[in-house]
Automatic annotation (TrEMBL):
GO cellular component: ATP-binding cassette (ABC) transporter complex
Name the UniProt record assigns to this protein: Spermidine/putrescine import ATP-binding protein PotA
Reported function: Part of the ABC transporter complex PotABCD involved in spermidine/putrescine import. Responsible for energy coupling to the transport system.
Catalytic activity: ATP + H2O + polyamine-[polyamine-binding protein]Side 1 = ADP + phosphate + polyamineSide 2 + [polyamine-binding protein]Side 1
Family classification: Belongs to the ABC transporter superfamily. Spermidine/putrescine importer (TC 3.A.1.11.1) family.
Molecular function terms from GO: ABC-type polyamine transporter activity; ATP binding; ATP hydrolysis activity
Quaternary assembly: The complex is composed of two ATP-binding proteins (PotA), two transmembrane proteins (PotB and PotC) and a solute-binding protein (PotD).
């Protein structure tokens, strides 16, 4: 059964004002978090942003310096890990090498005193869920990396935890397998309805797997929301450039456009862009404009002045053919830009531009993402 996000939300995990210092180092400065039942929430951010420390506090491996952690309405801030009913999958799998797959999965049940018969039944079910029904008798080193990761997953979910924690679970796998495991984990998580917190620095992983993304930066939550809202409405330059590629321009709003509903933004580097009106935008307002590479249209320059709004003249400085798309590096008098063009499956050549060619870049007002309004 697919989970329904329409239900009135039930918060399974809540972090309130959580902070963690190691000596004078603030690993986590202030994190607020509310995870709804059956949702997959991702803590995403660059190395050192505090996401692992946050996860370790949720697990109980670290205690916060300040703040509160609540699971199912119960304050567990200082509760030891084994009393939290949490399942964890680590990047390194951490399987017991000398135990067979089924005994690895049974481990947590044994420790909890689950009777043998029930144990055998639950281990079988868990292994079937991760598609390893036939592998119970193998040793971990007789399995591929992806299979070992699935054993780790089975071991975590067999105890029916209140929350599943995934700490960079896919980073040890090769690119192809990683992509498949993303889908598999997401499918399983929905199928059994498992409240999950995932930690990753991989923005693609976060975008493809999450119901909700929490972008962290320097120990704080920088922005949170659905994957598409994070991508389409980044609120800071950090989020705009960390999630996806983008071209950022500093500038200010100069006046209302002739066309109703639009304002004219003038970039410090010279060009003008028409952007959509919004309540908090008015002439004189400084802001950043984000233009995603895939929203720019590249066309041969006709030699006319590209002084019209929403257009720029440049030269092709680099062509990166990537199969499905081609990424162009474009030089303009003031700076370089990136443009991504979808390749036509039928045609042999990517797109007919050559290095050194003078081209015109253009975009629509809807392509203009406004970030960091000061
Ligand atoms: P990564 O992806 O590299 O693991 P991260 O976002 O998970 O990074 P954390 O591991 O949470 O970041 O670390 C946040 C900050 O806290 C870093 O500056 C790190 O050096 C510091 N830190 C983490 N654990 C400790 C520790 N046990 N003692 C001292 N400093 C620590």
């Amino acid at each position: 059964a697919e989970l329904s996000n329409a239900q009135p939300s039930e918060i399974v995990l809540r972090l309130a004002g959580v902070q963690k210092y190691f000596g004078s180092v603030a690993a986590v400065e202030n994190v607020e978090l509310a995870v709804q039942k059956n949702q997959l929430v991702t803590l995403l951010g660059p190395s050192g942003c505090g996401k692992t420390t946050t996860l370790r506090m949720i697990a109980g491996f670290e205690f916060p310096t300040a703040g509160q952690i609540v699971i199912d309405g119960k304050d567990v801030t200082y509760t030891p890990p084994n009393k939290r009913e949490i399942g964890i999958v680590f990047q390194s799998y951490s399987l017991f090498p000398h135990l067979r797959v089924s005994d690895n999965v049974a481990y947590g049940l044994k420790r909890r005193g689950v009777p043998k018969e029930e144990r055998v039944q639950r281990v079988r079910e868990a292994l079937q869920l991760v598609d390893l029904g036939q592998f119970g008798d193998r040793l971990p080193n007789e399995l591929s990396g992806g299979q070992q990761q699935r054993v780790a997953l089975a071991r975590a979910i067999v105890i029916r935890p209140k929350i599943l924690l995934l700490d960079e679970p896919l980073s040890a796998l090769d690119a192809k397998l990683r992509q498949r495991m993303r889908l598999e984990i997401r499918h399983l998580q929905r199928q059994i309805g498992m409240t999950t917190v995932l930690v990753t620095h991989d923005q693609e992983e976060a975008l493809s797997m999450s119901d909700h993304i929490v972008v962290m930066n320097k120990g704080n939550v920088e922005q949170e929301g659905t994957p598409s809202s994070i991508y389409r409405q980044p609120k800071t330059s950090f989020v705009a450039s960390f999630i996806g590629e983008t071209n950022l321009f500093k500038g200010e709003i100069v006046h209302a456009a002739n066309v109703d509903g639009l304002l004219v933004f003038r970039a410090d580097c010279g060009f003008e862009a028409c952007i959509r009106k919004a309540d908090n935008l008015e002439p004189g307002r400084q802001l950043l404009l984000s233009l995603r590479p895939e929203t720019l249209t590249i066309s041969p320059s006709q030699g006319e002045a590209e002084a019209s709004p929403n257009a720029l003249r440049g030269t092709v400085a680099g062509i990166n053919y990537l199969g499905a798309r081609t990424v162009f590096e474009i030089k303009t008098p003031t700076r370089d830009l990136m443009v991504s063009v979808q390749n036509d499956a039928g045609s042999e050549a990517p797109v007919a531009f050559v290095e050194g060619q003078t081209i015109r870049l253009s975009w629509t007002p809807d392509a203009c993402q406004i970030v960091e309004i000061n």
